[in-house]
Amino acid sequence: MTGFWERLKVSIEAKLNKIMERFEDPIEQLDYAYAKMVQQLHNVNMALARAVTARKRLEFEVEEIDEKITRLDENAKKAMKIGREDLARKALERKHILLLQKESLEKKISEMKEEEEDLKKVRDDLENKVEMFRARKEQLKAEYESAKAQAEVKEMLTGFGEDVVNVARIVDRADGRIKELEARSAAIDELIAVGGTLDVLEPEERDEIERELEKAKIESEIEEELKKLKEEVSGG
Asked: For residues 35 and 234, what is the distance between their CA atoms, to the nearest angstrom?
């Protein structure tokens, strides 16, 4: 019975060693690290695509506002020609509200373009790192396979089994490299985190003095345009 239990123990230890070798295989670890970097690159590209799409949406809104402003100018002129200064004033009021919205949107679009440029720099840098690591990964895998083959030949000739210094050294080197790359991947996570939301609305609360000044500015501009319209109509 003693011999049976010893053989069973040796068999179990051998199977466990094989399982551990599979989990610690440097080739699998290198492939995993590479896949993680490729996924990070994909995430950056997706973030960039979303940013561009959001900016384009705001640019379309600006174009629509320009069209509305043109129509309001035409309506103001028509109203003055038929003597409806009240309608002309209302059209100009709407026009100037749209001008404020347009100014806010254009400011946001400018900020978004800067964020896109930052994302492009991150993407380009990551693309270079992915390509460099891919080449290095293949080199490491080739070196490992070569060393493993040499070790297996020596084991058969010398009977030293799995206790081979070359294999241990390669595994340690691959582990160190992988940890470094995983740390870089984590750093890239922080680089691609773009803060804020695409809120293009005016703030709900404004300083009372600022609102009054803005209102006075609009009234002044409206009066000036009304004056010009009257001159145009009188001249016509």
From this structure: 75
CA dist 24 and 174 (Å) reads 10
Q: Which residue has the tokens 């996924």?
A: 39
CA–CA separation, 166 and 154 (whole Å):
11
pLDDT digits over 96-135, tens only? 999 999 999 999 999 999 999 999 999 999 999 988 888 8
> Exposed, middle or buried, 210 (CB in 10 Å: 0-12/13-18/19+)?
exposed
Distance separating alpha carbons of residues 125 and 44, to the nearest angstrom: 11
Given a contact cutoff of 8 angstroms between Cβ atoms, the answer to whether 193 and 115 are in contact is no
Per the CB < 8 A criterion, the answer to whether 26 and 171 are in contact is yes
Q: Look at the domain 24-193+206-228 and name its fold.
A: Helix Hairpins (1.10.287)
Determine contact, residues 45/119, Cβ cutoff 8 Å: no
Are 143 and 170 a contacting pair, CB within 8 Å? yes
- pTM score, whole prediction: 0.53
Compute how many other C-beta atoms are within 10 angstroms of the C-beta atom of residue 95.
Answer: 22
